[in-house]
Write a structure and sequence with these properties.
By secondary structure, this protein is an alpha/beta fold. It is built from 11 helices and 10 strands. It has 2 domains: 133 residues, HUPs (Rossmann fold), CATH 3.40.50.620; 148 residues, HUPs (Rossmann fold), CATH 3.40.50.620. The longest helix has 21 residues.
Length: 297
């Protein structure tokens, strides 16, 4: 398996390299660090203009030199450049060229130890044909491997498939498996929509989640043998709910694509998007096709 890293220009991005290093270290796989040079389409400037060529060459050379300096030294890595008008499209094309099975991108400027979805990451989370991992800002692996895979569990008809896929992913990384659900206080409109009434609504919801988790776990033999822990985070908002459960070095949060999205690509729904944007640990988003493939193994 090859991991493709989308490395930005014009700024240092050690966190994305640290995440790629941790993932590669856990599976013994190689890494391709790719910097995508986007044509700025400067009015009056042609692509064969020597000044333009010098400018983009310097961008790429500076970015890749910084990546070489910051990349963990215990993984097999190569550094490449691609030129395209769309950064996200160029990363997908590079993933196809190098037969990557995972694309890793970093966070935009924002709070340390949180995922801040950049414009490139946002497009990848709605269009990538392979899984996408997003590093939290300032992430440092400290030479660690993946220790625990936590699936963001949601009630629905495809829960068993997502649980089985998360189990296979945890097995590949040699990690523990945990299931997590998040109870965020509902506003009046949301409460009406899901027919939650009275103070017992939260307990009713928890009972439903626990029953569905039990059924999903029992539906897959490998997961049943693991008997994964279920944790529920409570909060007045998504940040509080995510922070209500324990996280540590080597944790990964996994979210599945929306069932309403295309089969062959990542498509993050509104709930998963909120979880990703408030996650204190790196996140892997799985396309529906990847979920089905993992679950069948």
């Amino acid at each position: 398996m090859t991991i493709l890293v989308g490395y930005p220009t014009k700024r240092r991005a050690r966190a994305v390299l640290e995440l790629a290093g941790m993932l590669a270290r856990s599976r013994g796989t190689n890494v391709v660090v790719c910097t995508a040079i986007r044509d700025p389409r400067i009015p009056g400037t042609r692509r064969d203009d020597p000044k333009f060529t010098t400018y983009v060459d310097e961008l790429a050379d500076t970015a890749l030199a910084q990546a070489r300096e910051d990349m963990p030294g215990d993984v097999d890595v190569q550094f490449v450049r691609v030129d395209a008008r769309s950064v996200s499209a160029s990363l997908i094309q590079a993933a196809e060229k190098y037969r990557a099975r995972l694309i890793v991108v970093g966070s935009a400027m924002g709070r340390i130890e949180e995922v801040t979805v950049s414009s490139v990451a946002d497009r990848m989370l709605h269009s990538s044909p392979i899984p996408v991992a997003v590093a939290t800002r300032g992430f440092r692996a400290m030479d660690a491997k993946v220790r625990r895979v936590t699936l963001a569990f949601a009630s629905g008809e495809d829960t068993a498939v997502h649980v089985a896929a998360a189990e296979e992913l945890a097995a590949r990384y040699g990690a523990e498996l945990r299931l997590a659900s998040f109870a965020v206080n509902l506003n009046h409109a949301e409460a009406f929509r899901v027919a939650v009434k009275g103070p017992s609504g939260k307990q009713m919801w928890e009972n439903i989640i626990r029953r569905e988790v039990e059924m999903a776990v029992q539906a897959d033999r490998a997961t049943s043998d693991r008997n994964p822990q279920l944790v529920i985070g409570h909060g007045h908002n998504w940040a509080e709910a995510l922070d209500d459960i324990d996280w540590g070095l080597g944790d990964l949060l996994v979210v599945g694509s929306s069932v309403s999205g295309p089969l062959a690509r990542v498509f993050v729904g509104s709930r998963a998007s909120k979880i990703i944007r408030h996650s204190p640990v790196p996140v892997i988003a799985l396309p529906r096709g990847a979920v089905d493939s993992l679950a069948s193994e």
